[in-house]
Amino acid sequence: MGLLSILRKLKSAPDQEVRILLLGLDNAGKTTLLKQLASEDISHITPTQGFNIKSVQSQGFKLNVWDIGGQRKIRPYWRNYFENTDVLIYVIDSADRKRFEETGQELAELLDEEKLSGVPVLIFANKQDLLTAAPASEIAEGLNLHTIRDRVWQIQSCSALSGEGVQVRLWRSLAVPAGHL
Amino acid sequence: MSSRKLRMFVQVCLYFYCKCLWRCLKFVVRKLTGQCELQRICYNTKPGAARTMKIEASLKGSKSKRLQTSVSVHPDAIEKTIDDIMELKRINPDINPQLGVSLQACLLQIVGYRNLIAEVEKLRREPYDSENPQHEEMLLKLWKCLKPNSPLKARISKQWCEIGFQGDDPKTDFRGMGLLGLYNLAYFAEWDTEIAQQVLSDSLHPKYSQLSKAEWEKKKFDKAIGYSFAIVGINITDLAYNLLVSGALKTHFYNVAPEAPTLTHFQQTFCYLMHEFHKFWIEEDPLDIMEFNRVREKFHKQILKQLQNPEMALCPHFAASESLINM
């Protein structure tokens, strides 16, 4: 498949390239986050069929961000993108309480994946601009994040819509795993 | 650095030189033929996109403020604008009765296209609101037209996935396309019902006809061999919107709309694009849905290329029988 050859090319380039995988349920805000990271217009977002990819330069890193659609039908394809992932970003719609259980299950399955073992995970508690959004601490507790022992992890509240909490904190979290890239 | 500045300087000089040359040429031709540029365009180019786009370029490039602003007047002021232009260009309407009519038709299209962009943009910016009975009604109509034989059991239901929404409530799927996405899908389902139902059915198992029974049995468990009808509709809405805003659709609208292009014209274009995209998808025979953006990009380029031909019109089959004035 074409995708694999692209991946190999990415890996053969000089270091300081970071492969970031952006996952989460549909309507979590992954594409908005991706566009926000790339400083692009976010007013024309449509639901993702398939995937989007963008390369973003930041602090000497070249971030290759893969945003994969979150629709249930597409989730079986997530595994095709696991290989060589440096950082997993998992996005949660903090206001969609009805699906906290579903999103927790998907995350737990991802953390069990062999190809993602040891990969640092950054969880974005997105949509904090909404009044009904649950705070990051509540989500962390609901998802039992404190039981994660096999990797670096972090949860950040953010609003991909306003851009608040997106840029700065992503870099800080990257600084930790950068050592074993 | 200095060579870049020099190059820029040369380019600027060249620009003014060409502009000056163009003006002189126009002056000479005008003296020779006794006709202004607008007259020459109308007499030498047949009606349709070719003529209207030349008129538009001529008006915008004119040195007269009145002519420049004529492309953005209110539709009601068009007749007065034509009179002004005729007076300004010292054209006698009694000797050239056809010119006013031709110019008016062009201007109606030019102004109409601008207004259509504004109308479409307004719809796009209006988010889907489940408290609004009109929005809800249209959403339910979409279901009824696509699935006449299987009633929706509840407003919030997994059934929505059957027509290609992502979850149990479509409202979160309209996103950046707002009401425009719903308007387009509902129009497609209501006015081009047969094709819409066919496309929906194919989108659920597009490769069925081409596979052997054994292969199909194997594939059936792979739930994502097709694409999601409604989601693709919202993505194709984005494509149609981009074609409109970039001006690429002028070719099409100036060829099919006798006067100002309307929202209906835009929605018919959407129907055409859905049908064409579907055929394109099947021809491309992608491995799976993950290739969607690649296929979409290729389709976009193909449509853009087609629209470069001034004769081009993107007509859905059901509108083809309607009068195409300029074809």
Automatic annotation (TrEMBL), chain A:
Keyword GTP-binding in annotation: yes
Q: Where does the record say this protein resides?
A: Cytoplasm, Cytoskeleton, Microtubule organizing center, Centrosome; Golgi apparatus membrane
Please name the source species.
Answer: Melopsittacus undulatus (Budgerigar)
Instruction: Return the SMART domains for the record.
Output: ARF (SM00177), RAB (SM00175), SAR (SM00178)
What name does the UniProt record give this protein?
ADP-ribosylation factor-like protein 3
Swiss-Prot/TrEMBL keywords: Golgi apparatus, GTP-binding, Lipoprotein, Magnesium, Metal-binding, Myristate, Nucleotide-binding, Protein transport, Transport
Q: Which residues bind Mg(2+)?
A: T31, T48
> How is it placed in the membrane, per its record?
Peripheral membrane protein
Q: What is the lineage of its organism?
A: Eukaryota, Metazoa, Chordata, Craniata, Vertebrata
Positions of GTP binding: G24, L25, D26, N27, A28, G29, K30, T31, G70, N126, K127, Q128, D129
Q: Which GO terms describe its molecular function?
A: GTP binding; GTPase activity; metal ion binding
GO process terms (BP): protein transport
Identify the domain of life: Eukaryota
Is Lyase among this UniProt entry's keywords?
Answer: no
Provide GO CC annotations from the record.
Answer: centrosome; Golgi membrane
- List the InterPro entries hit by this protein, alphabetically: ARL2/3, P-loop_NTPase, Small_GTP-bd, Small_GTPase_ARF/SAR
- Similarity annotation: Belongs to the small GTPase superfamily. Arf family.
UniProtKB/TrEMBL annotation, chain B:
What's an example of a GO molecular-function annotation for this chain?
GTPase activator activity
Q: Which Pfam families match?
A: ELMO_CED12
InterPro entries from the UniProt entry:
ELMO_dom (IPR006816), ELMO_domain-containing (IPR050868)
Protein name, entry field: Uncharacterized protein
Q: Which organism is it from?
A: Melopsittacus undulatus
Lineage runs: Eukaryota, Metazoa, Chordata, Craniata, Vertebrata
